[in-house]
Write a structure and sequence with these properties.
The complex is a heterodimer. Chain A is α+β, with helices and mostly antiparallel strands. In chain A, 44% of the residues lie in helices and 20% in strands. Chain A has four helices and three strands; from the N terminus they run H-H-H-E-E-E-H. Chain A has a three-stranded antiparallel β-sheet, with helices on one face. The radius of gyration of chain A is 15 Å and the shape is globular. Chain B is mostly beta strands. Among the domains of chain B are: 103 residues, Immunoglobulin-like (Sandwich), CATH 2.60.40; 245 residues, Jelly Rolls, CATH 2.60.120.200; 135 residues, no CATH class. Chain B is 12% helix and 31% strand. Chain B has twelve helices and 46 strands. The longest helix of chain B has 15 residues. Chain B starts with a strand and ends in a 6-residue tail after the last helix. Classes of the chains: A alpha+beta, B mainly beta. The interface between A and B is medium-sized, with 35 and 33 residues. Strand 1 of chain A pairs parallel with strand 29 of chain B, so a sheet runs across the interface.
Amino acid sequence: MAEKRSQAIRWSFHDERDLIEEFKRSPIGHHSPGLQRLLNHMRGSPMANKYCVFETKPNREWQLAKTSGVRGKPSKLIGKRFTRRVDAEWYVFRQRWKAMTGETLPIR
Amino acid sequence: MMKITAYADQISAAPGETINFMVNCDAPKFKADVVKLICGDENPDGPGFKEQFVRTPVTGSYKGRKQVIHAGSFVQIDATDSPQIDGSFTFQAFIWPTTPEKGQQGIISNWSDRHQTGASLLITPENDGIGLKIGAGKGKVQLFKTGKRLLPNEWYFVAASFDSNSKTITLVQEPLHTHMRANDSGTRRHKCKFSKIPAHTEPLIFGAQFKRPDKGRTACVDHFNGKIDSPRIASRALNRAEMQALKVVPIDAEIMHDVLGAWDFSVDIMGTTATDISPNRQHGRIINLPARGMTGWNWTGEEMCWRHAPEQYGAIHFHDDDVYDAGWQVDFSLTVPHTLRSGLYAARLRCGKTREEEDYVPFVVLPPRGKTTAKICYLLPMGSYMAYANENMVNDAQIGQLLGGRLVEHNRYDEYRGIHREYGSSCYDTHSDGSGVCYSSRLRPILNMRPKYRSWLGAEGSSLWQFNADTHITDWLEAMNYDYDVITDEELHRQGVAAIEQYKVVLTGSHPEYHSKEMYDAMDAYQQRGGRLMYLGANGWYWRIAYHKELPGVMEVRRAEGGIRAWEARTGEYYHSFTGEYGGLWRRNGRAPQKIVGVGFTAQGFDISSYYVQQPDSRKREVRWIMAGIDKNEHIGDLGLIGGGAAGLELDRVDPLQGTPPATYLLAQSENHTDIYLVVCEELLINYPGLGGHENELVRADLVFYPTPNGGGVFSTSSIAWPGSLSHNNYKNNVSRMTKNVLNRFASGKPLLD
């Protein structure tokens, strides 16, 4: 399965920098086909150790977490908290990009 | 983690009627009040959370106690009814195990845990094949096994016999289909240490093993996952030919003499009894609603409906996470005061100051029986709330982030449900063995049917879904000072058109997806007789459901052939066990949604919403009143708490081939949906590229109006996000304006075409 998905992204974009910038500008909403392909790859993994967010203050603050992927086992809260959903999205994008490519994207 | 959870025995009650509340509380005490729910959305960008305290005798402090749910289905035959096994015996059945690796699982169990006596035919731990556990007291328990691994999802004939004279145990494990190199077949003989099993008074159980009684309920262990068909018990050790004769009905008369019980699950599939067809008539009670109407060991595939060949549907599919009635003790009750206006209310429970120490149990106060107290009826879609009750996609679904186009959001309720699987799941989930959840009960805490609950499905912004999203409607009705009655679709199901025919106008919720035939017929009759319907949502009238004829508070859906399905019913299991009706989409039952609301499900996406563009029909003289106060160039609903637009989440569209009436006015059409929005699968006879919102013209919402006979009419918004836009800019926006135009005209009784 991982093999298949990495084949998919090989064909999905020509300039990675454009996609990163596009995502940073607007993490949620309309995306170009290339960015959508990259995000599908990043978001489609199984539930074990998968990023999610946990509501700590309704509508105003979320804490990063990871699902266990095992019924009956709780999610694990990770330290980072965000007051904007888009900031959580960018943070997770950077983690996933690093896992995919080894590259650390700057925070800003 | 939630410290308090609760449920009620009724979802609705009229003045003078009583609702009982059952509470599980970690703290020594809790406070209870009754509140009227107006707006359950805490988003500070919106009107904010609104509830009104209601003075009732409920207000007070109550002793807190833990109450647990014993999940897992089984058949129970009480000791007074069950066969006395005190010497030789044979247990036999057909099984289709789904999780043979998941530890010890009882098939036919006559076991006393207290005394460690009895016998239990079971799947052994570590899937060492079928086994027989036999006990003559503490320290005198033996487990014998075939040692042949069972394959999941395969039929086996299994049997265990005990000959007390020779102290011989015989185990039989016979696959009905031979797979090469599976090595799953075997007969083993063992010698037992003792020759007599002391009698006990515990019940006989199929599909689990009895542990202990617990406040009027039975707690079992070793729950079996999978199907059991034709369990039999004989009073001596049968030989193979005799076991063979006992498999089928009618049972040979010579064998019948030694039969203690022969249960035929194909009898009375709609009921709650496991029928013993032997002369002993030791019927069992079916607990926690395992799935019935399931293909049996002898299903040939030539008949798809259990009513036509019940003898091929003698299986019950048991699950270790089935739950029907939590069976908790009552903590307090409310007799609805005669002064209490019809509306949406809740018992508010608090055992501390944190959000984990608060729970709400919603309920509806009906108008006095036989009366109406307003022209407007708001129809709460309880069948749809039950379909989603305790949904665990948030915890389990790999495609969650793909559908939502963003990270999935959890909250304290989601975490609790993810851990406490004994609270049962929704009809969007699978059981622990991967089979679909086809029944959902409201006799348990429904921890996503709550005010203040945000859902991962609800789009950016307020992120609300189903029950809490629908409080945007009650909020708007209250803000606009409308008098309205609230009823649930259970009233519609039970009373038919009589439940709504006195109302000038009926409003739906944002997502009235699930309907029984009775509900559908009632709504159709209402429209034909001049009733006026405002369909404030989308994906409505999509799935056919059934309610149980005996048991209150539980619905059934079979996700059969076609449709957006979170699981798929197995072939041959498309017909409701509750009623024998063909399940699945209403479209597959010859009644596409376009026939009842003019529009039907076309696309879905869960990231952000969009707006509508007005269409030429909206300016036709006879319907121009709908757009009064709205400039013809305005986008409709380019605003809102659900994804930032009024057209979002699930969308419906016109389709004359599916039944959109010829007199339909297309008032507006949405556009500019993201590529997260995709055309629904029942529209795709052949898949092809370009199914997303950027490319496909089927990804849209069609806002329509059409007249019906006798002065009636239907107004359909075709979008789940519609109610989330009503409050924008202090209710001064074109979504609110249009909704108000339509509601005022519908409620007035005046003709609908100028």
